[in-house]
Structure formats: structure tokens, C-alpha cells
Amino acid sequence: MAERNGHAPLARDAMAYVLAGGRGSRLLELTDKRAKPAVFFGGKTRIIDFALSNALNSGIRRIAVATQYNAHSLIRHLQRGWSFLRPERNESFDVLPASQRVSESHWYAGTADAIFQNIDIIASYAPKHIVVLAGDHIYKMDYELMLQQHVESGADVTIGCLEVPRMEATGFGVMHVDGKDNVLSFLEKPADPPGIPDKPEIALASMGIYVFETSVLFDQLRRDAAEPGSSRDFGKDIIPWMVANGKAVAHRFTASCVRSARETEAYWRDVGTIDAYWRANIDLTDIVPALDIYDRSWPIWTYAELTAPAKFVHDKEDRRGMAVNSLIAGDCIVSGGSVRRSLLFTGVRINSYAAADRAVILPYVNVGRSAKLKKVVIDRGVRIPDGLVVGEDPELDAKRFRRTDDGVCLITQAMIDKLAAT
């Protein structure tokens, strides 16, 4: 956490409000039973753990999480892994499901509404500032530095932004800024994104991270709630209005990205597609990965199950339990099979003569004997039949499983059951 020239950290009087209600439909069947923020990542964590850990490591001790779609798995994870914040230490952790608090037919209508409906709960803690976060990205960031910029600039809203090659920013909300990063206009998915004055071929894309003084945010939420036709959304309504009518300032992610000595890039990933999710996980198996999850100065907090150590058994030439360039969680047993450049989450079993190559295998999967798996994502609890081969025949894979344009196969138990029935 950054120091503030002898002053108390601003994070001490801030609340982090994490928007975690999205379905993440581009992750296909991975989000049939869980919201995108609850999807497993990196061998033992969930996606939401990165935003929550950033808040905690930044010094923020009041955190709220708004949930909506398929929330049970997420809420259970939050209760198990994040219940250590204690009110007697002036800390708080609130899970705020959409609960029709405004009317009997009114769920969260949009990201802004997910905060508006809980204004009374936020007000009871009297935070000075609110840091609004998306719960579905992978990155490490010190929000204290963003809070400091917000106060020093006198902004009404400070918007976290990525520096993106200009013509790659067409799928983002883009900030058109002046030489001091004051936002002149907000453009949603522009065909010709504006560059920034100091780097004309770079655009500033919104990260969905916002800092407000609490009273300013409340005023904006109440104004927007009374606006006919508003979609009650930050990106579509609140931020464009504030850019046009107030002072909005861009905060560049490079200014507050947390990097260990081993990390060379300002790492941020949206793992919202199967291909992006697979790639971000597999990248962690690099000898020196772009994201250092071993950085003890900025730990990624999560719910850690009590498990036995991982185990590797059998040592014959054709039946050797082994893993190379892989992340293996607790309670995994690799019994006479081989694992290469893969991630095995808690409780995975790899049976004799089986082989996993560039595989992301979620908890409690059982891979049967002699199965051969390449470039796969396997959902939690799947039982892979003996002898199943995936990753060698693209046409056959596409008929049986979800195969992406990049050749990654998503496998669920329903797909396996359907295969067994034919």
C-alpha cells in the first residue's frame, strides 16, 4: 500500500464496492451454474479474488459485493473465504444480492442501480470515498494511488483506464483526454478511437473502475434514478453525464499497477471468453509468467480448502506419475499419468496411462485411464471416461464438445453423459 507523505492513507476511509452480478455468457457452460466472478482461476483462486485482494492489500477495510445472476457459488465462496473482516476492528464485508429492496418487481436494473438500491447500507458506514470495481478481471492494482490522484486533481469522478493500441480499443469505452488526462468525451466502442496527446497511437480504454467522493456518487445515483429512460448503468449513463457536466479525470493503470521484480508488463486480462480464459491460465505455467501469483508482498487472498498434499505415484517407463511446467493444487493424485503445461485444481485425479497437455482442469475431475487430453478446459466434477481422446481430431471434437476457433475444447459432465448415451 502506497504511503501518502505523512498523511493517513485515503483507503482507510474508503469502501470498495464490487459489481459481481454479471453472467459472463461468453464463457458458455462455465457460467451455467456460477457467475463469471465465481469462475475458478489460477489453480486455487476465483476471478473475484483479484479485485477483493487488491482492495484489501490497498488498505481498504470496508468491502461490499453486489451479486445477482447464479449467485449461490459466489456467495458460498465469499462466506468461506472472506469472513475474516471484523466489525470490532472497524472492518466490514457485505454480500448484497439483488433482493427487491426498492420494489417487489425491481431487481438490479444495471451497474449503477446495484449501488443505488443499497445507498442506505453504504451510508451506515459513512465512507469518505467509494471505489467501484468490476469483479471479473485479472490484475494487481494499488487503489490507494488512484484515490490519491482523485483527491489531488479535484475530480468528480476518476476513471481507471488501460493504455491500449488505438485500433484495438474499438471494443471498449474510450476516454478522449487532454494533456492533463482530463476527460473531454467518453466514446462507447468507437470505430476510430482517439489517441492520447503524449502517445497518439495509444487510446485510453475504461477498466470499469471508478472513484467518487461518496456524497457525489449518491447525488449522481439519485439524479439518474429519476431520469426517465436511463438504463441505470455507469458506462452508459453515469459516466457520460459526468464527463459532459462535471470534472472527469482518467487514471492510467500503469500508474498503480502492482508488479514484482519478475513482472515486466502492466498485467490486466479480461478472461471473458473460453479462449482468453484458457490462455490466461496456461500462461501461468511459463517459467517466468507475465503475472506473478507468487508475490508474497501482494498476496491473492482466497478460500483455501484443508487438503492433503498433491501426490505423484508409479515410476515405470510407461506408467510414471509426473508433471512438467504445471500448477498442481492440493489433494491431486497423478497416478501413473503425465501432465504437461497444465493446471490441476483441487482434488483432480489423473489415472494410469492418461495424459493432459495444456489442460485447465477444474476441481474434483477424474481423468480415466489412457485418456489423452490436449487444449481443454474441463468443468468441475467431470468424470472423463477411460480412453477418451480430445485434441487430435478437430471435426470429431466439435461434434462432441464446445470447440472454439482457437481449438480449445470445453468439456462438461452433460457433454460426457450425452456422449455415453450415443
List low-confidence stretches.
none
Number of helices: 10
The second-level CATH architecture of the largest domain is: Alpha-Beta Complex
Tally the structural domains. 2
CATH topology of the largest domain: Spore Coat Polysaccharide Biosynthesis Protein SpsA, Chain A
What is the general shape? globular
* Sheet with the most strands, sense and barrel status: 9 strands, mixed
Q: Considering the protein shown, what is the CATH homologous superfamily of the largest domain? A: Spore Coat Polysaccharide Biosynthesis Protein SpsA, Chain A
* Rg calculated over all Cα atoms: 23 Å
Measured as a percent range, the helix fraction is 10-25%
Question: What do these coordinates show?
Answer:
The protein has 422 residues and is α/β, with parallel strands linked by helices. The strands form six sheets. Strands 1, 4, 5, 6, 8, 9, 10, 11 and 12 form a nine-stranded mixed β-sheet that branches. Strands 17, 18, 20, 21, 23, 25, 27, 28 and 29 form a nine-stranded mixed β-sheet that branches. It has two domains: 263 residues, Alpha-Beta Complex (Spore Coat Polysaccharide Biosynthesis Protein SpsA, Chain A), CATH 3.90.550.10; 111 residues, 3 Solenoid (UDP N-Acetylglucosamine Acyltransferase, domain 1), CATH 2.160.10.
Keywords summarizing the entry:
about 425 residues; alpha/beta; Spore Coat Polysaccharide Biosynthesis Protein SpsA, Chain A; UDP N-Acetylglucosamine Acyltransferase, domain 1; 2 domains; 9-stranded mixed beta sheet; 10 helices; globular; ATP-binding; NTP_transferase_dom; ADP_Glu_pyroP_CS; ADP-Glc_PPase; nucleotide-binding
